Amino acid sequence: MRYHLLFIFFIPRTVSWTWSEKQLSLQTGSSVTIPCHYDIKYIQHKKYWCYNAGGAFNYCKILAYENTTEDRVTVTDYPAQSLFTVTMRDLQSGDTGMYWCAVEIGGLTELDDKTDLYLTVQSDPDLSVLESSVSGQEGGSVSVQCLYSAGYQNEQKWWCRSKDQRCYTVGRTDTSQNSAVQISDDGRSSFSVEMSGLQKSDAGWYWCKTGDLQVPVHLSITQGHSVHSIMAACLTVLLLLMLLAGVGFWIRRKRRTTTEEKQTEIRKKNPGQDGHTETKDLSYSTVIFNTDKKKINQRSPEIQTCFPSEDPVTYSTLSTMKRRTEL
Fold first, then answer.
1. Which of 143, 164, 245, 246 is 20 to 30 A from 21, comparing alpha carbons?
2. How far from 150 is each of 75, 122, 126, 147, 161, CA to CA, in Å?
3. 215 half-sphere exposure, CB direction, 13 A CA radius
4. What's 261-275 look like in SS3?
């Protein structure tokens, strides 16, 4: 690990450190993601997460730089939002101490830009949330439940937006034309936050806050199905059905026209046949059976020898005739 050492030459300067209002009470074994905002002019500067148990920034230990993971710490930069986040995993009581979100300025006579936070890791935290990341639909609502210990029952409860530090307290507050924040405290162990009429601009990081403690919550907004989008979808489906019906009608008409053209062509090739094809002449035969014994006996002896008189013999006379095709 690298250590951050800062020496100031020629210019005597006394820095007065005060404990930040951002104090986090975290549970042993859990993970936390902390948002760190910075000025847009520092987009190209290095960002880092720094730690010193005694609270001295000049000698803090740099745990990780932007877009890197070191041990149990990950720092991720989001330049488009002028924000970087710090994720710490598997927190232990030994992680308790002062931390800094910092941006490297680069000059010897100018301190790095920083925001300090004090983290306390314990088995039973004084302030926590049921869900540290929630999602709502545009135009809809979302709820967050913040849990606090008995020692904070009489403390004021707040819901604060991290980007601009705008805070809302118990009761209902209209934040814009459509959205609103409703905070309800049960006076025993939790207070709930409900945001309604959500807009895309409501997405981002927030803090549940009571007394001197805070805990981060990330809110994401998904696109909703507005009345206009539903009407547009219905109109699209209707137009598609009309198009398919038109294509089907055209195909049927085309087939009917083709059939009629073929029939007309056949009539032209075979005039007077009314569409019937020519039938070939057929030959028929007539068979006449004769079983008269007298005629048999009058035949020559040779025939009688082949056909004895006691056995009946059947003769037939075959004649052919043609049947003309009727048109």
1. 143
2. 34, 16, 8, 10, 25
3. 24
4. HHHHHHHHHCCCCCC
**CA–CA distance, 25 with 146 (Å, rounded to integer):** 13
Q: Taking 80 as the threshold, does the pLDDT of residue 315 lie above it?
A: no
Of the ranges 12-21, 25-34, 62-71, which one carries the lowest mean pLDDT score? 12-21
128 neighbors 120 (Cβ within 8 angstroms): no
Alpha helices (H) in the chain, listed in sequence order: 227-269, 293-297, 301-306
CA distance 64 to 76: 10
Give the span between the Cα atoms of 163 and 54, in whole angstroms.
28
Q: Rounded mean pLDDT of 194-222?
A: 95
Residue 159: partners with Cβ closer than 8 Å, 6 or more residues away: 144, 167, 168, 169, 181, 183, 193, 206, 207, 208, 209
Copy the structure tokens of residue 124: 């039973």
Q: How far apart are CA 228 and CA 231, in angstroms?
A: 5
Size of the chain in residues: 327
Q: What is the pLDDT of residues 252-280, one digit of tens each?
A: 877 777 777 777 777 776 665 554 444 45
Instruction: Identify the sign of the CA torsion 98, 101, 104, 108.
Output: negative
Residue pair 318/286 in contact by the 8 Å Cβ criterion: yes
**Is the predicted pLDDT of residue 205 greater than 80, yes or no?**
yes
Q: Which pLDDT belongs to residue 5?
A: 43
Query: pLDDT confidence of 53, banded at 50, 70, 90?
Result: confident
- Judge whether residue 327 has pLDDT over 50: no
| Average pLDDT of the residues of the chain | 80
